Amino acid sequence: MWVWTLFLALVILFLALDLGVFHKEDHVVKSKEAGIWTAIWVSVALGFSGVIYWLFSNGMVDNPTGLTPDKAVLKYITGYLIELSLSIDNVFVIAVIFSSFKIPALYQHRVLFWGILGAIVFRGLTILFGVALITKFDWIIYVFGVFLLWTAFKMLKGGDDDFDPKNSFVFRQVKKIYPITGNIQGNRFFVRKMGIKAATPLFVALVIIELTDILFALDSIPAILAITSNPFIVFSSNILAILGLRSMYFLVSRMLEKFRFINYSLVVILAFVGLKMLFSHQIELPEWLSLVVISLALIAGVVASLLIPEKNIEPTE
């Protein structure tokens, strides 16, 4: 239990340093700064694989499936890459939300910070629930597998292009609870107008981002559970990927048009882990194969986006 406590304390320390020291003053996060922070978060996450090795070498975490330290590290890195890659799709949606509510770049980091806090709590509950289901009901892995294949199929077809946060169910419900101001009021989530508490666009954007993250968790958690059901590996890989989501957003959101084929990478990843779940009792794949497939899918999407020129459609006379 102390391992979980220390890990959560470490996450809280990271968040406190982030908002209380490094981003104490609201400012526009430039691409260079975002790139540096992305590199830092990725380095921290990959460096944590050494902690995973040490913990499993000394039997300091529950290990019901008897993972060796080497296998534990492979599963952790694979789970981290899955969550990181699926977070790219989350970046697209966050960009649409910020654009729809005209959230200035000056305040976007603050909104994402509080969104991350809520995401950590919900991910913890989802992981706990998912691991318990797989442990108690062996057949649930087939349900997760079919769900991931369906998600991959929907992503391949598209259909999220018309997403409009201002016409969403969440926005309509928030309006029923609080009046919504039409203007940004600094970095405040609530203001008082004529004695009435009203929500600013920052709060509405935060709520919608929070709830869309819940929907994304329904994809990412089963995907990681396809790799391992060890709760500490699933939780730590997931949370460390989420911690780097903010800096990755400011880095990737400005290059969305360049990564035109990254969605196909996500389709391949989701389809692969879905099939792995469906055939988990018939075929046992080596630990390194999942890592290789996921890495190659991401690399192929990025390389194809950079090398294949975008077709320009000439206007007709």
UniProtKB/TrEMBL annotation:
It is found in: Membrane. Signal peptide: none annotated. Its main location: membrane. InterPro entries: Integral_membrane_TerC, Integral_membrane_TerC_rswitch. It comes from the Bacteria. The chain crosses the membrane at residues 6-22, 34-56, 76-99, 111-133, 139-156, 198-218, 224-249, 261-282, 288-308. It is a multi-pass membrane protein. One of its GO terms (cellular component) is membrane. It holds the Pfam family TerC. Keywords: Membrane, Transmembrane, Transmembrane helix. Belongs to the TerC family. NCBIfam families: R_switched_Alx (TIGR03718). This is TerC family protein. It comes from Aggregatimonas sangjinii.
